Amino acid sequence: MVKSISCFGLRMSESSYYQEYARSVIEDFSNRGEDAKNLLVDSVNELPAARVLDIGCGPGQEMLSFAQKKNSFCVGIDIGDELGKIGPPFAEQFGCSRRVKFVQGIGEELPFRSESFDVVLCRVALPYMDNKKTIAEVSRVLNPGGVFLLKTHAAPFYFGMLGNGLLALSPKKTAYPLICLFIGMWHLLTGKQLRNGFWSGKEVFQTEGFLKKEFSKHGLKIEFELKDTNRQTPSYFVVKSSK
To answer: Which fold has domain 4-154+206-240?
Structure first.
């Protein structure tokens, strides 16, 4: 039986959604300029990057520059098994498949030993996960002094989605961002993330205040915003404290 998932309030098969998503991500990556492709690896500069983890990796596009420019061993973890099938041939196109590995799993339960990565990437994947558990896991697997390159969804992202839904006169595309905004406000006010039943699979926005609070519990600190930051999708350079 083909599984069905909800994306922006629409139903589609799990396989077809992941394949379409991967195609769009690969196309977007291929159309980037060199500066944009190398934004993350260049931000790390001379810091250690022997082992890199990408949480919610998709086809693995964000890891490639590390494998190419720093000869890093990169591991991508994603809940979708279809993406693991698409990722290896994509890495092969860039000549770095031997330094890239894909694992099926979730950010809340990373199947890696503690302090095993120099750099962790999580690029617009945190909104789909249990935020507190994932942040704790990121800190656990990061080496002391390691770097966490995080990009999130802020509330304005869903207001933009809401506006597009209204312009399209689409009840489903209007309802979905409203649900996400409600979940985000509930999370902000109560500290509890709605994830069961009807709320399963729905996104939640992150505020900088929330991130700073959670980071402080796990020895993480925002050092600065990356060049691709904006109001809708803030982008952070985060460092784990050294022991």
So the answer is: Rossmann fold (3.40.50)
Cα–Cα dist 175/67, whole Å: 40
Instruction: Check if the beta carbon of residue 170 is closer than 8 Å to that of residue 147.
Output: no
Tens of pLDDT along 16-52?
Answer: 777 787 888 888 888 889 999 999 999 999 999 999 9
> To 10 degrees, what angle do helices 131-141 and 208-217 make?
50
Q: Which of 73-82, 152-161, 213-222 has the lowest mean pLDDT?
A: 73-82
Given the DSSP bridges, would you call strands 100-104 and 73-78 parallel, antiparallel or unpaired?
Answer: parallel
The domain limits of the chain are: 4-154+206-240, 155-203
Owner of token pair 């609070």: 213
